Amino acid sequence: MQVSLVTAMILAMASPNSTLQLQEPSTLTTTFKYTATVAEANGDTYLWIPVPSNNALQVVGDILVSSETDPNLDYAINTEPEFGNRMIAIHLPSHQGPLTVTATFTVKRKRPAVLDEKMGLTQGFPSLARCLASDSLVPVGARYAELAREVAGNTLDVMQRMKQIFTHTTEELSYDYQKQSPKLGQGDVAFVCDIKTGNCSDIHSYMISLARSSGIPAFLEYGFPISGIPVPEDLPKEGSIGGYHCWMWYWDEALGWLPVDASDAIRWNDAKHPEVAQRLFGNLVLHRSAVSISRGRDIQLVPAAKNG
Fold this sequence. Notes:
Layout: E1 2-5, E2 27-38, E3 45-51, E4 58-66, E5 74-79, E6 86-92, E7 99-110, H1 143-152, H2 158-172, E8 174-175, H3 189-195, E9 197-198, H4 200-213, E10 218-224, E11 238-240, E12 245-252, E13 256-260, H5 262-270, H6 274-279, E14 291-295
Parallel strand pairs: 8-9
Antiparallel strand pairs: 1-2, 1-11, 2-7, 3-6, 4-7, 5-6, 10-12, 10-14, 12-13
């Protein structure tokens, strides 16, 4: 994916052992471009491309879908009902040889300092009931409820319980920089419990299992970063994104929905900047969450895939 950074970020760099102050703008506007190629299509074939939705932190515009191979592309922008995720559903005609589709969109995103600025986000999120239920690889209850009690105790204070789960996760799990896990990115909580390493999807699925097992609604959110960790002093205005990033949200009745990025907290700790890591409980770093693309796991395609 190509990305064009419209509003540049200002970052104060520091030596490895000093305090890092991230000086982020109040908003960040970024243009993203997907290119997908289908080798051939026989019969009734669909291609789904995720596109971001508007929410409390971002406004999405200028969604364009095109194909030089097929100028009369048949497509619709659909929304699945469970999490509110949007996707471009492209109906492909039978064809031989490659067909290339391009989708572009622009995102204007607020600085996600949700806890620091007491944003009180409550609208436009998945239902609390869904965020307490299990996913196919994210179980709730049983051994995970026992572990949640060991980690978070029985306090009624939701933030205290969640902070204990956050601390436990950042101390007990490691980030799999070498991508050695045979189930990397699958979010298989039972496997993560044993191997104690993974990427952002694995680490946050583990946290979500403990949160839900402790009675705290939580869900996973995927997006794209425009920088790694640590952040370069001069962020380029254009570039390619090699992979996704994700974080989680949990529900606090007194404060609303709050984000947590334990995966990046581990990485900032490894980079000798614990002050940034601690801030990732209740807030996100803008350049690491430049756009939210989708929420939840086990997402249903619209229209549904014929093979389920």
